[in-house]
Amino acid sequence: MKMNGLNEVKIMGNLGQDPEVKFTPNGKQVTNISVATERGWKPEGSTEWKNVTTWHRVVIWGMEKAVEKMAKGSLVYVSGRIENRSYENKEGQKVYVTEIIAEDLAVIPVERNGEGSGQSQGGSRNSASTANTSRSGYQSSSRSASASAPRSAASRSATPPTPGPMDDWEDNDISF
Question: What is the dihedral sign for C-alpha 34, 175, 7, 133?
């Protein structure tokens, strides 16, 4: 019996820059984003936490409504697959890149003073709704702000999320 492999990745982190939106010659929207994830731990015998930030290149085909909600600093959930590719740069050198091809994504509202907006802006290849629906049509098992109890209109934040720990990030740190 032949066994198929598994190529699945799920990340949640902050955008390091505004989305880069382009169109193919056929008019299909393709968006590139860079997402920062953090991992923290407290070394044994230490009183200080250590943090490591990892940057992920993400390619989004379509999902226009979700992309419209994104801006630098936005908290996003991405589910997809990893792909490797190569290209020749301007100097003629072969460059290898690893990217996440998004199959499901959601822009997560940032909580302010313990209050979340109770709304999640999501998208997928097969769904134009704001629900977190994967390509297979099943509800996503991710936990997001949409799972919280509904909040009153007065508690919803109308301002975009404030950029977090990557304020010193520069546009030339990751090239697409």
Answer: positive
Report the sign of the C-alpha dihedral through residues 166, 124, 135, 60, in that order. Answer: negative
pLDDT, residue 111, reads: 72
pLDDT computed for residue 110 by the predictor: 79
CB 34 within 8 A of CB 15: yes
Q: Is residue 121 within 8 Å of residue 63, measured between CB atoms?
A: no
- pTM, 2 dp: 0.62
Q: Give, as one character, the DSSP assignment of residue 161.
A: P
Residues of the chain with pLDDT under 50: 116-121, 124-176
DSSP states of 57-119 as a string? EEEEES-HHHHHT--TT-EEEEEEEEEEEEEE-TTS-EEEEEEEEEEEEEEEPPPBTTB--S-
The topology (CATH level 3) of 9-42+49-164 is OB fold (Dihydrolipoamide Acetyltransferase, E2P) (2.40.50)
101 within 8 A of 78, measured Cβ to Cβ = no
CB 6 within 8 A of CB 80: no
pLDDT of the residue at 134: 38
Burial (CB count within 10 angstroms: exposed 0-12, middle 13-18, buried 19+), residue 59: middle
